[in-house]
Design brief:
Strand content: 25-35%
Strand order of the largest sheet: 5-4-3-6-7-8-9
Oligomer: single chain
Radius of gyration: 16 Å
Structural class: alpha/beta
CATH superfamily of the domain at 60-203: Vaccinia Virus protein VP39
Number of helices: 6
Helix content: 25-40%
Length: 220
């Protein structure tokens, strides 16, 4: 009975939250219908796994709204051969989605506890093409760069050039940039050796990545 209820909730999440929010890529819709979200949330919130809320996961962090996760996956336009960097593993749910669409994922998380939990959850789902690392994804150039895609699961006041430079040519980066209450989901595409294209996608508010000071600005 509980399983049936959760499956119905997952169907409703896709049809009533994600699709109406201009997520029309059938691959993304099918993926979010396929991957259960409830195993990735804390037990206390399992019945809210598919609700239109940001679920707390500890250390003051929260999962993104499902509709924002869907828009991010759609914007990245992930291809089967893509190598992906995720900054902010969190619960591991977005990591699972990225891994199902791409070839391999390197995911960095500043809290080792989250890394351990995500590893167990991903293994339980049979997802093996992910390398989880504990560390600050903003501190240095990531071992394994450059990447075809970079996904940031927390916001930044401004995007550091060091991240853009870890993209391959034609590589894409998704980030929510700005400070509350004014933030914008943005897609950055590397179009040349020294040139990038920026496209504003939608307005939203997302908790900042840790170790990013409010009001800080990066130098380009």
């Amino acid at each position: 009975m509980i399983t049936d209820t959760l499956e119905q909730a997952r169907f409703n999440m896709v049809q009533q939250q994600i699709r109406p929010w201009e997520v029309l890529d059938q691959r993304v819709l099918d993926l979010m219908q396929q991957i259960p979200r409830d195993p990735f949330v804390p037990d206390a919130y399992r019945n809210l796994a598919y609700a239109d809320i940001e679920i707390p996961i500890g250390h003051g962090q929260r999962m993104m709204f499902p509709r924002v996760e869907g828009r991010m996956l759609q914007a990245l336009n992930i291809q089967p051969d893509d190598r992906i960097l995720e900054i902010g593993t969190g619960s591991g749910y977005v990591t699972a989605c990225l891994a199902k669409l791409g070839r391999e994922v390197i995911s960095l998380e500043i809290h080792p506890e989250f890394t351990e939990q995500a590893l167990a959850r991903l293994e339980a789902q049979g997802i093996k093409n992910v390398a989880l690392r504990s560390g600050d994804g903003l501190a240095d150039r990531i071992d394994g760069a450059p990447f075809d895609l970079i996904a940031l699961t927390g916001s930044l006041p401004q995007l550091p050039e060091s991240l853009e430079r870890q993209l391959n040519l034609d590589g894409r980066l998704f980030a929510v940039i700005g400070q509350a209450p004014t933030m914008e989901a943005t897609l950055i595409t590397r179009v040349g050796e020294e040139s990038w294209r920026s496209e504003g996608l939608f307005e939203t508010v997302l908790a900042p990545l840790e170790n990013v000071q409010e009001g800080s600005r990066f130098t380009f």
